[in-house]
Amino acid sequence: MATATPTVFIVDDDEAVVRALTRVLRSADFVVEPYSSPRAFLARAQHDGPGCLLLDQRMPDITGLDLQRQLGPNPSLPVVFMSAYGDVGTSVQAMKAGAMDFLVKPVAADQLLDVVTRALVRSEQALVERQERAEIASRLERLTPRERQVCDLVVAGLLNKQIAAELDLSEKTVKIHRGHMMHKLGVGSVAELTRLIGRHTLATSHPDSPTD
Amino acid sequence: MDVASTEQRLIRTVAALAVSGWTAIGTPARAAEEVQKFEVLLLLPDQPITPAIQDLVEGVRSSLAGSARAFSISTQHLDVTRFAEQDYEQFADWLAMRYVNRRIDVVVAVGRAASDFASRHASGVWPAPAAVLLVEDFFGESNLSTRRRTAIVPMRFDFLQTAEAALSLVPETRQIILLGGATPNDQRYLRQARAALAPLGKRVTITELSGLSFEKILVHARQLPADSLVLALTFFADGSGQTFIPQRNAIAQLAAVANRPFFAIHDNWVGSAGVVGGRVFNYKALGQRGGNQVLAVLGLREPGTGSTDFTSHSSWLFDWQQLRRWNISERSLPAGSVVLNRESSAWQRHRWAMLGIAGALSFQMLIIGALLVQRDARKKAEMRVQQQLHELAHLNVRAAAGEVFASVAHELSQPLSAVLGNTQALQRQVSPDGSFPPEATEILDDIASESLRMSAVVHRMHRLLRKEPFEWSPVDVNAITASTTDLVRNRATLNNVMMSVELEPDLPPVSGDHLELQQVVLNLVLNAMDAAHQNGSGSRASIGVTTERSGDNIQLSVRDSGAGISAEVEERLFEPFFTTKKNGLGMGLSISRSIIELHGGRIVVHNLPEGGAEFRVTLPAAKAA
């Protein structure tokens, strides 16, 4: 995958605000793509590289919350909300819907740069994790159904003898499947295997769910 | 049992960990066990500036001080007197953010509103705290969630006992007047008292004195029926919206001029508010019981009676001065009564006489004033009415201003963001030798134009809130309509209401007061916006505002997509204090009509065939000069 430049997207219906924020971010050498209409941003091709979205909450045609919902969950594009004082309620909703942070306008430069830096770091992490996940998934796909079964049972902590009984195979056959499986996945020990599978299932279940 | 104790242990461990993690930053050498402080949050109905609330907080404090552990007590208040319940949703969100990094061990909710709030929102606001709820009239109700570790201390006002004692102390009584304020909270106490006094219905009539302005109640207080007595309940605000903090100030003024004795149910009123006394509620004792329950839910003390403490917090308390004033023998007081104010100074002896004289004098002056007005020309009287109306309209603007605030906050925060961003961008780009970047001119232009934008917003707001003498001048109906709709445009967006404005160009001006007429437009537009959503059909809420010329008149029409107005509502629509809104004052339309009539115009309302209602204002155009 081509590594695109980390990009900060700004969506705010107020052009003066967009210009000001763009200037602040550019003064700190961030790459910025400003939009003064949510529709223009939605029309843009999907951004594959690291990035973050600075989103105004209150806009005339699509609200920030609606836009966030339309984009769907995407850990590699963290959303930072901007709201006016008094819109705190909506900010809480935004956070619940998975926004990374929110800024109350007027936003001080230090705060803005700090939040954007953190958002980009998170985005990069999410991309690395996604790549890793894809990598593990492709390795898992190379397993035969039988090897996959053996894999699951090894991870579940069963001994070869128990696996043999479970799958109605001889212990010797189990050993062979197990050897192939470990080889294909590129792991040398049960501990490594458990870690790998753990990372896979963890990452695929709920990437960003907050702990309640 | 097992599960519960494991959970408790777990919570404590987690709390200890959280505390040790936190204190490790500040005082690394001390053991977590030693420094663990319990955080108690008091969720109060009102600002902690009223005597009752101060006593209560003091009670909690003194009870916790008796324990070996350290406590830190903080308070938050709902301000129930001034805000309606629906505002609490946002308050919950605000609290959730405020306490996101702060651990609270126990929430003590005081009163019905705070308890409801705590049981509805606490889990979203403070993860897994224990709660102590001090609730009035708890009995028989259980919609309060009793979560994990909740203790309930019921508060009960002894309306009936106080009334019975009052009847035996003033035996000629045939009528008990329940005195209360006009807020929903006051009304709730009135209902409670009425229900509690039902058994007395055969012996005496029970009436209410409430809902009126304080001044009117003051007039009533001087001429109460000779066979009556007053049971003063609560007085958060009067019918005109004037609030009384502490409430006993209002009661003291009323009791001072009253021709019949006052009885009360709050301990801090006896001896300070001119009430005879009663079976009064002791707020400090309540606070202490609350504090004891805090210790109990934290496992630091044996709970009194399970998780609910039903002990009474009331006692018999009377004011010696008042007993003398109304000729009540001390011997007829209930057993166990405490009598305050026995010593009497010259001022105390003559206070009532002095206040009475002052009261009589001011009353006389009022009468003289009224006679003067009557004697004066009719025009002068009209001017006075006009002036009062103007004041009232100003009050009403203030109420509406709150509604407009959210909209204005957003309007200001946008240019403010632009100014701040541009300034800071420029600061960051100025080179060490002081030279500006090439973009500087554009940046400065932006700053200037955004500053002007802010000043326009402030100016608009100022015009709305400024109180100027009523002045007749040519008023451009289009201009006031446009500036009003601009003012609420953000609110419309926020509430998802489509607003269309059509102004007929080149309308002749009307003659009148700019501020007053703008007030009418604002009232109508805000009403329409509230009504627009109630169409039940789920179609997009919308309002339409139009102006047009019709002969020698100017017409302003405000239409909404709501459910229209039922015949019974229509009849009372323009009456003062009539409202269909939960937190409405009921003054908007009544004031609007008065203003329009003063301008020689008319305001009518009718339902539209396509649904919704239309308010139509007709004003005579000014004669061309």
Instruction: Indicate the mean pLDDT of chain A.
Output: 84
Total count of strands of chain B: 19
Structural class of chain B: alpha/beta
The radius of gyration of chain A is: 23 Å
Please name the defining characteristics of this protein.
heterodimer; A: 212 residues; five-stranded parallel sheet; 5 strands; 56% helix; 12% strand; elongated; disordered C terminus; B: alpha/beta; five-stranded mixed sheet; globular; disordered N terminus
Question: Could you provide a short overview of the structure?
Answer:
The complex is a heterodimer of chains A (212) and B (625). By secondary structure, chain A is an alpha/beta fold.
Explained architecture:
Chain A is an alpha/beta fold. Chain A has helices at 15-27, 38-43, 64-71, 88-96, 109-141, 145-155, 160-167, 171-185, 190-205; strands at 7-11, 31-35, 51-56, 79-83, 101-104. Chain B is globular. Chain B starts with a helix and ends in a 5-residue tail after the last strand. The A-B interface holds A 14, 16-17, 19-21, 23-24, 26-28, 58, 60, 82, 84-89, 91-92, 104-109, 112 and B 89-90, 93-94, 96-97, 405-406, 409-410, 412-422, 424-429, 439, 443, 446, 449-450, 453, 490, 493-494.
List the helices and strands and how they pair.
The complex is a heterodimer of chains A (212) and B (625).
Chain A: E1 7-11, H1 15-27, E2 31-35, H2 38-43, E3 51-56, H3 64-71, E4 79-83, H4 88-96, E5 101-104, H5 109-141, H6 145-155, H7 160-167, H8 171-185, H9 190-205
Parallel strand pairs in A: 1-2, 1-3, 3-4, 4-5
Helix pairs in contact in A: 5-9, 6-8, 7-8
Chain B: H1 2-26, H2 32-35, E1 37-44, H3 51-65, E2 70-77, H4 88-98, E3 106-110, H5 111-125, E4 130-136, E5 150-155, H6 159-169, E6 175-179, H7 184-196, E7 205-209, H8 214-222, E8 228-232, H9 247-257, E9 262-264, E10 277-281, H10 283-297, E11 314-319, H11 320-325, E12 338-340, H12 346-375, H13 378-429, H14 440-465, E13 473-475, H15 477-494, E14 498-503, E15 510-512, H16 514-532, E16 542-550, E17 553-560, H17 567-572, H18 588-598, E18 602-607, E19 613-620
Parallel strand pairs in B: 1-2, 1-3, 3-4, 4-5, 6-7, 6-8, 8-9, 11-12, 14-16
Antiparallel strand pairs in B: 10-11, 13-15, 16-17, 17-19, 18-19
